[in-house]
């Protein structure tokens, strides 16, 4: 079994290194504009998610008006015709589609985010979401080897996709989160400032338009600001490095990784009134909607069998050991994962973690 696993890794590296000189690279400037490119395998179109195009392969341009009739073939490290000669005049917006998915337990439903080519839907990522509680359960996406990436877009309008009312959106915005928690607990609580934390991060994709498609309320949970910008961001950066196409002797890179990101439990806090001993579960809207998760997890896997589970406590403090022991058998974290910031983070044994907490994702993540 170990020999087979090693062979898979070796072949992945061999084909990447061996074909590196026979590929075309989509120029970094084209990643930043509103172009959406398609690949074609056996006459099945899909989203082009990487800037690396093998020799002989054709890619196509998808715009608001449909697919451009011209194909661009990689020939001896250049596109023929040149890729930069045709651009979209108007942007094609991402669509949200309810899709059947047995790995999403009721009453939640699975919503896929992607793009249409006529009647053919091409999925970018999918999320299991409880519309009644406005609670995101998990998100699933794939991230691909690349060489360059557009920067994270700024001032992006968050889409509510008719799943959330305007009043509920206001509850989710960071500037009123503190007031919401204060109302719940009767007085100000320290460090209760929440971000709209992505489950499928914008860093999972290299094209600006794909990054923008992650800014949706069905893709966000209330996440402590300091956790979001420190340990959780460090985890996302570590995943990105695994597919960054700059192989060296210290870290290996992968061709494609499947990533499942999710939320567990509802966070609770002590009441500010010391006479009230029970801990209060935290919701951002009417004490019943938009729950603040207690834990955040990320499962990263490769076809070779490599798999990791990272678990982060959604608080600036450390969790109770008994709470951690109920959901995670800890194991050594992979080399290069920074856990020195805010947000208590451990790594868990993958199979045991899935069986204990998310059995519905067995065989999926």
Report the β-strand fraction as a percent range.
25-35%
**Total of helices:** 9
Distance between the termini: 20 Å
Number of strands: 22
Placed side by side, the strands forming the largest sheet appear as 8-9-10-11-14-19-20-22-21
Oligomeric state, counting identical vs distinct chains = single chain
Briefly note the structural class of the backbone: alpha+beta
User: What is the typical, i.e. mean, pLDDT?
Assistant: 90
Rg (CA only): 22 Å
Could you estimate the helical fraction of the residues in percent? 10-25%
What are the segments in which pLDDT stays under 50 over at least 5 consecutive residues?
6-19
Task: Outline the fold blueprint.
Layout (H helix, E strand, L loop, with lengths): L1 H18 L3 E3 L2 H4 L4 E6 L2 E4 L4 E3 L3 E6 L2 E10 L2 E3 L14 E5 L9 E9 L2 E11 L4 E10 L21 H7 L1 H12 L8 E5 L9 H5 L7 E5 H4 L2 H13 L12 E11 L1 E3 L8 E3 L1 E3 L3 E3 L1 E9 L5 E7 L7 H7 L2 E2 L13 E4 L1 H8 L8
Antiparallel strand pairs: 1-4, 2-3, 2-5, 5-6, 6-7, 8-9, 9-10, 10-11, 11-14, 12-13, 14-19, 15-16, 17-18, 19-20, 20-22, 21-22
Q: How would you describe this protein?
A:
Helices cover 21% and strands 34% of the residues. The protein is of the alpha+beta class and 365 residues long. Strands 8-9-10-11-14-19-20-22-21 form a 9-stranded antiparallel beta sheet. Strand 10 (120-130) and strand 11 form a beta hairpin. The longest helix is centred in the first third of the chain and has 18 residues, at 2-19. Mean pLDDT is 90; it is low at 6-19.
């Amino acid at each position: 079994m170990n020999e087979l696993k090693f062979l898979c890794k070796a072949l992945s590296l061999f084909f990447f290194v061996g074909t590196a000189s026979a590929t075309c690279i989509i120029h970094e400037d084209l990643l930043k504009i509103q172009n959406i490119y398609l690949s074609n395998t056996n006459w099945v179109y899909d989203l082009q998610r990487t800037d690396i195009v093998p020799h002989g392969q054709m890619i196509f341009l998808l715009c608001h008006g449909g697919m451009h009739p011209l194909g661009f073939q990689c020939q001896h490290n250049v596109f023929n015709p040149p890729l930069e000669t045709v651009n979209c005049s108007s942007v094609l917006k991402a669509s949200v589609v309810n899709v059947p998915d047995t790995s999403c337990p009721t009453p939640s439903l699975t919503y896929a985010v992607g793009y249409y080519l006529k009647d053919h839907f091409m999925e970018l990522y999918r999320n299991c979401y409880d519309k009644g509680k406005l609670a995101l359960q998990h998100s699933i996406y794939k991230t691909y080897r690349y060489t360059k990436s557009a920067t994270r877009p700024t001032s992006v309008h968050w889409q509510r996709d008719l799943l959330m009312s305007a009043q509920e959106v206001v509850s989710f915005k960071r500037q009123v989160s503190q007031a919401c928690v204060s109302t719940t607990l009767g007085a100000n609580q320290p460090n209760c400032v929440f971000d709209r934390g992505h489950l499928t991060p914008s860093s999972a994709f290299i094209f600006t338009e794909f990054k923008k498609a992650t800014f949706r309320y069905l893709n966000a949970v209330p996440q402590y600001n300091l956790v979001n910008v420190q340990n959780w961001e460090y985890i996302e950066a570590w995943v990105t490095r695994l597919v960054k196409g700059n192989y060296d002797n210290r870290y290996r890179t992968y061709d494609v990784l499947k990533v499942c990101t999710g939320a567990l439990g509802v966070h609770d806090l002590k009441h500010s009134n010391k006479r009230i001993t029970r801990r209060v579960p935290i919701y951002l809207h009417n004490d019943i909607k938009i729950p603040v998760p207690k834990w955040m997890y990320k499962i990263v896997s490769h076809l070779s069998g490599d798999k990791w589970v990272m678990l982060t406590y959604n608080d600036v403090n450390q969790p109770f050991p008994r709470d951690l022991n109920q959901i995670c058998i800890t194991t050594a974290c992979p080399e290069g994962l920074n856990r020195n910031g805010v947000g208590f983070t451990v790594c868990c044994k993958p199979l045991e973690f899935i069986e204990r907490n998310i059995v519905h994702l067995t065989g999926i993540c």
